[in-house]
TrEMBL record, chain A:
PANTHER family: AP-3 COMPLEX SUBUNIT DELTA-1 (PTHR22781:SF12), DELTA ADAPTIN-RELATED (PTHR22781). GO terms for biological process: anterograde synaptic vesicle transport; Golgi to vacuole transport; neurotransmitter receptor transport, postsynaptic endosome to lysosome; protein targeting to vacuole; synaptic vesicle budding from endosome; synaptic vesicle membrane organization. Residues 709-726, 808-821, 831-847 have a biased composition (Basic residues). InterPro entries: AP3_complex_dsu, AP3D_dom_metazoa, ARM-like, ARM-type_fold, Clathrin/coatomer_adapt-like_N, Mu_AP3. Residues 597-664, 694-888 are annotated as: Disordered. Residues 745-762 have a biased composition (Acidic residues). It is found in: Cytoplasm; Golgi apparatus membrane. This is AP-3 complex subunit delta-1. It comes from the Eukaryota.
Length: 1121, 187
């Protein structure tokens, strides 16, 4: 880290240098550091600097850094807009390419909006290289700026038939991605794609097209039918696995959407399954995985055809790869039937034993439970077997799913009445061996099982063989080491057990036995009373009091058992999980209102709430299969007991309020199930589940015989047969009568529950915005915002102008600060222009001329639209808004046969008396230029900033060498005393020109001209501030007029802005106010008016000399127009 | 495709390309998580895994893992194909590519990737075209590279002696491996 921070310091130093190559290098390093995880957001501005470098080498690095580190939150991203636009229109295709690539990574909604039009133009670029990039990037643009989709779509469609395969595939890619989000808008393209699919041989493209069809078919079944044939052909013919896989996937999708009514679709399913089998049998793990994945998709609709491959899938369970085993497990879930459930689970159980790694084992465990419990235990024919499976699972080391097993145990015990006896015996055995579970597994979840065990034993204590034994097991001191919530259940159920034992004893007339049990309770309960867990403590102390009371009564020989067991009378029914939610609020019941006035007396408080409770209870009579409900019940019981304990006469006087529960109807209505007694109910000890498999087979065999008999009978008797349950098929061959049955109907729902439909669509889906109907004709308002030449707008409707104006006026407000940077940025961009080859220059000149003539034509039109344009404020006439002919602020300094010097002078805002001179040296010879030195004769007013210790007469070295034909830029700082006058400095460049023949020493003299304009810095100003400035009255005034100007006003303003560093404050018609500031803080205000063939400039400035000098310079500039 | 990561067997990130906008923090978190999960997988395991709501496709080439995240409906096999194609491109460009090539020329590796994929979609399926584009772009910068004041090379001193064409993964010197951790070690 120390090394890195040192590196970063070094990089910061390098970034401060003016040499762009050093900067680029530093940025490159930063990119690497960014990858290593260091924050480089502080360098964002430097990255932009490098991006705007003229040389491809640096530009490339800059864009790379930008694409890696910029994101939507990067604020300087705004500054890149114009740079990117410039690069996009660059004549070099690689400049354009690199800009497009970069843009694809950091495009923001703003960038997308501003650049959409430029990119659209690029879509019809002459070079396929650019076209394809432009097409691809459009997808990103659509995502960020959905409004652009409709105008761009026709062109995108054209690209589908582009002669270049790369462009074509790019277009396919984009449309495919679009269609996947919102398929319905692209249905009309189906025929086109169909043609492409049958004709294309490029697998990459084919896959995309097929994927696209996969998205379209659910909407248009006819398409699916048409597709099947070519797809099956492809499946047969292709050798590419990826294509095969895609085809199979799509065929599956098609078949799902077709559902039925296809004569040959079973054939294609068969084909798919066969191919998938080949994939699964392949030695390549990847294919195996995908095969299983696709298989599970088929399974959903065509389970039968998959089931025949059970062997293969079971094989996959033995695979070395965990992810493959998990996939196979998923498949098994769908493959079980009544017939094979036991077999599959047995297989899984052996895997559980073998499996190393707890995660996989846990996964297996949950899958076993899932498989067994799916759709209401539909496939379980023998619940004893299931219970013993669950018990076996508890013996797993270190599973996290104890609560899952516990929940299953509770669920089964409650819902399958016939199994209760068996379950209770198993659970008591489990409680008996609780120390095994508890001791070794304190830290993991398996002790949760004891929770279920205790509850089942207590609740169904009447089924217990040796209740006394179990009671003792539950009262062991060891129990106190269990987690609190389990102890609480223990305590609660101990009482249930106790009540049960008491009753038994009393009925048998064993008063002593009953007293002994009571004594046991009194002896053991205190250990719970001391518990740290509140719940346990509370329950235990309540119960202890109760038991002590009973003890007293027993001593008086009062029969108490009846009363005690009445505490726990009543039956529990399972309730559907949503039932609670669906209980309608009774009319007139306002749940938010206070039930009582907050400050009422305590008596009424006692009474009323209970009444409310009762009302509700009638609606959802008794349901507490789950833990939460159990707790609720416990709480209520607690309350009752408290009451009873407080009132010594309570037990004697009135029957317990519990009686009410017994009256409620419902219990009798639950279909009670016949038990197939062919299975011995009592299996000694802890049975192994394997036994059941054997038993089951026997039973099945017998049943079959019976059934055959029955069937014969039935034929005569005409279906007199007992109706079992509606959801179970009674006739099919598959039917194997279950040994016990689940109370499926008993998941109660309130009568007037409403079917709830959930809203599943996510309104925040980013792709939703792209759900645009593409077939509608384009409306005018939808056209992309195109930043146009102002004059050209004259014939357009006024509405069109509104967004443009709005944007312009908004921009500066938001980004007042950034504006300055932006201006500077702009300048830099312009400097680059200079470095381009002379050939380009010529072209540009031509363009410039054309532009001028155009401008003339347009200016003639102007009066037409001027009424609309009148009063429209223009904030900034800076060149960014108009396609001005590219100009350079670099002026020629000197040249000879070896070298050409051009320079640009810029004022800096930070230092009030410094200007930076950027000198571009271009080597025109065939020799290498070395050892260049610049010496400048300082004047009184201006002097060059030299390295420390060097005298005035020493030259300053140029920090680079120039190979033939290249140019580079060096920057020097000059200090100026007074800026009101223009300055000229003499200087000499000396250098060594070295070629094959030898080296010569050469010199070149030059004159640096510091004009007054070069001391001005472009500073934005707002009309109100501008007005104040003018009103203040401390500005001197001067004016100048130039005749014979034919250039359009717009261009004129741009020229002034550009050459003299002004910015437009306001423009009305052919009149504009402009502002600028000198580096020493002089304000300069201009009013530019255009007459017929002339321009007049009125200036106001805090320094009259400066103003007059400036106006002279301006005159010279304007005269050239 | 949502993003592509390249990392070494030691879990060092060598290249990352994100086609979805995410904050740096998020990126770091994802990277760490994925590197861990992928490295934990045994060589015999298949190259796909489900992660959050994405599918991860990865493949190991020598000591480098190439790891892509794709969306639910995307084709895993074609993604593997993309990874392979990218490796082929790197191989062609560097001439039997090795991890060091990617460390020292990471910007080149990015450029190649950018020519091959754009915004997460395959841009050019033809190897020849990609390489041609890269070569021409290189040519363009070669001219300026000669003179540009690259006084401070960002490569360590062994860079000069390591003619990367002749080295493959197995036999690069240990000294170099050491500085591969700090690519700017000496300058």
């Amino acid at each position: 880290a120390k090394y890195i921070s040192q590196c970063i310091d070094e990089i910061k130093q390098e970034l401060k240098q003016d040499n762009i190559a050093v900067k680029a290098n530093a940025v490159c390093k930063l990119t690497y550091l960014q990858m290593l995880g260091y924050d480089i957001s502080w360098a964002a501005f430097n990255i932009i600097e490098v991006m705007s470098a003229s040389k491809f080498t640096f530009k490339r690095v800059g864009y790379l850094a930008a694409s890696q580190s910029f994101h939507e939150g990067t604020d300087v991203i705004m500054l890149t807009t114009n740079q990117i636009r410039k690069d996009l229109s660059s004549p070099s295709q690689y400049d354009t390419g690199v800009a497009l690539t970069g843009l694809s990574c950091f495009v923001t909604p703003d960038l997308a909006r501003d650049l959409a039009n430029d990119i659209m133009t690029l879509m019809s670029h002459t070079k396929p290289y650019i076209r394809k990039k432009a097409v691809l990037i459009m997808y990103k643009v659509f995502l960020k700026y959905p409004e652009s989709l409709r105008p761009a779509f026709p062109r995108l469609k054209e690209k589908l038939e582009d002669p270049d395969p790369g462009v074509q595939s790019a277009a396919v890619n984009v449309i495919c991605e679009l269609a996947r989000r919102n398929p319905k808008n692209y249905l009309s393209l189906a025929p086109l794609f169909f043609k492409l699919m049958t004709s294309s041989t490029n697998n990459w493209v084919l896959i995309k097209i097929i994927k696209l069809f996969g998205a379209l078919t659910p909407l248009e079944p006819r398409l699916g039918k048409k597709l099947i044939e070519p797809l099956t052909n492809l499946i047969h013919s292709t050798s590419a696995m990826s294509l095969l896989y895609e085809c199979v996937n799509t065929v599956i999708a098609v078949l799902i959407s077709l559902s039925s009514g296809m004569p040959n679709h079973s054939a294609s399913i068969q084909l798919c399954v066969q191919k998938l089998r080949i994939l699964i049998e392949d030695s390549d793990q990847n294919l195996k995985y995908l095969g299983l994945l696709a298989m599970s998709k088929i399974l959903k609709t065509h389970p039968k055809s998959v089931q025949s491959h059970k062997d293969l899938i079971l094989q996959c369970l033995d695979d070395k790869d965990e992810s493959i085993r998990l996939r196979a497990l998923d498949l098994l879930y769908g493959m079980v039937s009544k017939k094979n459930l036991m077999e599959i689970v047995k297989k899984l159980m052996t895997h559980v034993d073998k499996a190393e790694g707890t995660t996989y084992r846990d996964e297996l465990l949950t899958k076993i439970i899932d498989i067994c419990s799916q759709s209401n235990y539909q496939y379980i024919t023998n619940f004893e077997w299931y219970i013993s499976i669950l018990v076996e699972l508890t013996r797993l080391e270190g599973t996290r799913h104890g609560h899952l097993i516990a929940a299953q145990m509770l669920d089964v015990a409650i819902r399958v009445k016939a199994i209760r006896k068996f379950a209770v015996s198993q659970m008591s055995a489990l409680l008996d061996s609780a120390h095994l579970l508890a001791s070794s597994t304190q830290r993991n979840g398996i002790c949760e099982v004891l929770y279920a065990a205790a509850w089942i034993c207590g609740e169904f204590s009447e089924h217990l063989q040796e209740p006394h034994h179990t009671l003792e097991a539950m009262l062991r001191p060891k129990v106190t080491t269990l987690p609190g919530h389990i102890q609480a259940v223990y305590v609660q159920n101990v009482v249930k057990l106790y009540a049960n034992i008491l009753q038994q004893k009393e009925q048998a007339g064993e008063a002593e036995g009953a007293q002994a049990v009571t004594q046991l309770m009194v002896d053991r309960l205190p250990q719970f009373v001391q518990s740290a867990d509140l719940e346990v403590q509370e329950r235990a102390s309540c119960i202890l009091q109760l038991v002590k009371h009973i003890q007293k009564l027993q001593a008086k020989d009062v029969p108490v058992a009846e009363e005690v067991s009445a505490l726990f009378a009543g039956e529990l029914n399972p309730v559907a999980p949503k039932a609670q939610k669906k209980v309608p609020v009774p009319e007139g019941l306002d749940l938010d209102a206070w039930i009582n006035e907050p400050l009422s007396d305590s008596e009424s408080e006692d009474e009323r709430p209970r009444a409310v409770f009762h009302e509700e209870e009638q609606r959802r009579p008794k349901h507490r299969p789950s833990e939460a409900d159990e707790e609720e019940l416990a709480r209520r019981r607690e309350a009752r007991k408290q009451e009873q304990a407080n009132n010594p006469f309570y037990i004697k006087s009135s029957p317990s309020p519990q009686k009410r529960y017994q009256d409620t109807p419902g219990v009798e209505h639950i279909p009670v199930v016949q038990i197939d007694l062919s299975v011995p109910l009592k299996v000694p000890g802890l049975p192994m589940s394997d036994q059941y498999v054997k038993l089951e087979e026997e039973r099945r065999h017998r049943q079959k015989l019976e059934k055959d008999k029955r069937r014969k009978k039935r034929k005569e008797k005409e279906k007199k047969g007992k109706r079992r349950h509606s959801s179970l098929p009674t006739e099919s061959d598959e039917d194997i009568a279950p040994a016990q049955q689940v109370d499926i109907v008993t998941e109660e729902m309130p009568e007037n529950a409403l079917p709830s439909d959930e809203d599943d669509k996510d309104p925040n889906d980013p792709y939703r915005a792209l759900d645009i109907d593409l077939d509608k004709p384009l409306a005018d308002s939808e056209k992309l915002p195109i930043q146009k030449h102002r004059n050209a707008e004259t014939s357009k409707s006024p509405e069109k102008d509104v967004p443009v104006v709005e944007k312009k006026s908004k921009k500066p407000k938001k980004k007042e600060k950034k504006h300055k940077e932006k201006e500077r940025d702009k300048e830099k961009k312009k400097q680059k222009e200079k470095k381009k080859s002379p050939k380009h220059k010529k072209k540009k000149h031509k363009k410039e001329k054309e532009e001028r003539t155009k401008g003339k034509k347009k200016s003639k039109k102007q009066p037409l639209g001027s009424e609309e344009a009148a009063g429209e404020p223009v904030q900034n006439g800076a060149p960014e808004e108009e396609p001005l002919p590219p100009e350079s602020s670099y002026s020629l300094l000197a040249e000879n046969s070896y070298v050409k010097m051009t320079c640009d002078i810029r004022g800096s805002l930070q230092e009030d008396s410094q200007v930076t001179v950027a000198i571009v040296l271009e080597n025109r010879s065939s020799s290498i230029l070395k050892g260049m030195e610049l010496s400048v004769l300082d004047s009184l007013n201006a002097r060059m900033a030299r390295p420390q210790g060097s005298s005035v007469h020493d030259g300053v070295p140029v920090p680079f060498q120039l190979p033939p034909g290249v140019s580079n830029e060096a920057q020097y700082v000059f200090t100026i005393q007074s800026i009101v006058m223009a300055q000229k400095l003499k200087g000499t460049l000396s250098f060594i020109a070295k070629n094959d023949e030898g080296a010569t020493h050469e010199k070149l003299d030059f004159r640096l001209h510091f004009s007054c304009s070069s001391y001005l810095t472009t500073t934005p100003c707002y009309s109100d501030a501008f007005a104040k400035l003018l009103e203040s009255g401390d500005l001197s005034m001067s004016s100048v007029k130039v005749d014979g100007i034919r250039m359009s006003f717009q261009n004129l303003l741009a020229k002034i802005c550009f050459h003299h560093h002004f910015s437009v404050v306001e423009r009305v018609d052919s009149c504009a106010s402009m502002y600028s500031r000198s580096i020493q803080g002089h304000h300069v205000c201009l009013l530019v008016k255009k007459g017929e063939n002339s321009v007049s400039v009125d200036g106001k400035c805090s320094d009259s000399t400066l103003l007059s000098n400036l106006l002279e310079e301006m005159k010279a500039t304007l005269a050239k127009c | 495709m949502q993003f592509m990561l390249l990392f070494s067997r030691q879990g060092k990130l060598r290249l990352q390309k994100w086609y979805v906008p995410l904050s740096d923090k998020e990126k770091k978190k994802i990277t760490r998580e994925l590197v861990q999960t992928v490295l934990a997988r045994k060589p015999k395991m298949c190259s796909f895994l489900e992660w959050r709501d994405l599918k991860i496709v990865y493949k190991r080439y020598a000591s480098l893992y190439f790891c892509c995240a794709i969306e639910d409906q995307d084709n895993e096999l074609i993604t593997l194909e993309i990874i392979h194609r990218y490796v082929e491109l790197l191989d062609k460009y560097f001439g039997s590519v090795c991890e060091l090539d990617i460390i020292f020329n990471f910007e080149k590796a990015y450029f190649i990737l950018d020519e091959f994929l754009l915004g997460g979609e395959v841009q050019e399926t033809s190897k020849k075209n990609v390489l041609k584009a890269i070569e021409q772009a290189d040519l363009l910068q070669e001219v300026s590279y000669l003179f540009s004041s690259l006084g401070t090379s960002m490569f360590c001193s062994c860079w000069g002696s390591l003619s990367h064409h002749s080295y493959s993964f197995r036999n690069y010197s240990e000294a170099c491996l050491a500085c591969s951790v700090h690519p700017f070690a000496v300058y």
